């Protein structure tokens, strides 16, 4: 399979880049964070979306190298941006299921933060529900370790995984990200309205932050504000953009 070899070389040959998608406070449109999104530019194949290579990387074990590259790059960037005088918001990083279950994540994150002198409050890790259900007790241990380091923890694609809700009360989570599939057909789809409303109510009553993903329209924005969701991420505000464009959105200290 062609991609595997190419993927193996991609890190060394610096073919990955990170884009940053702003996360917005719906009350004043200020930027409260950003999600780091990986892009792969292969000289032969062109730009390959993560939906095509992340699954391959997970199957072949290369995902740990990719996740580590992302963590290093984000921490390096944060430190550099701060040196340049930017007011840097929290950056969210996607951690793959396979890497999360590996028992080495927390130690690895600690070493990377230390190496780049990056403060843990500026990092959020996004994991999916499936990751937790794979091995709830191990996930719990790993999350606790990360939380004790001051890292924030979010459940990505919330509502799409096969999971029990009981983990929400036992695990040290900070935020739920409402999956974009529940947002995209608002306001037309009454079922999606109901599901989004329920997730927001659940998060708010459990003391978790909630952010809507994939917000594209003013109507969606209105609906979510009215239901008590304070934060959003989506094309209505910005897609993921290269580092220099992201920096132009930040204020200087
Ligand atoms: O950016 P885009 O919508 O194409 O991302 C598609 C999928 O790839 C999403 O599910 C997203 O979580 C995942 N993804 C994007 N960037 C990263 C990354 O840096 N690491 C991992 N593990 N997954 C990522
Ligand atoms: O699974 P995850 O939530 O990490 O995936 C995030 C993906 O969603 C990114 O690849 C990003 O490009 C995509 N995305 C972000 N905002 C929007 C949006 O408003 N509309 C659509 N269709 N996709 C979006
Ligand atoms: Mn994500
Ligand atoms: Na998501």
From TrEMBL:
Report domain EAL positions. Answer: 1-253
The molecule here is called EAL domain-containing protein
What species does this protein belong to?
Amphritea pacifica
Which residues of the entire protein appear here: the answer is: 832 to 1084 of 1084
